[in-house]
Task: structure prediction
Amino acid sequence: MSGKLRFRVDANPRTHIVSFHIPRALLDALDQLVEVGVFNNRSEAIRTALFNLLREHKDLIERKQMILGYR
Result:
């Protein structure tokens, strides 16, 4: 592994089903974003949120991989 966090974007990516528990208030807020057209559906909203979370914290992951590489 090169130590870099990379996101692969394919024209036809394979997807996987992930189930998780979410508080009703968050689900209602998510559905409101879909209703007003910010996202096409829940899955798109969750994928976008997860992508942004990973991008926001990628420097932490890269630093950890770099530190482990020096050990």
Remarks:
- Residues 24-70 form one domain.
- The CA atoms of residues 4 and 42 lie 29 Å apart.
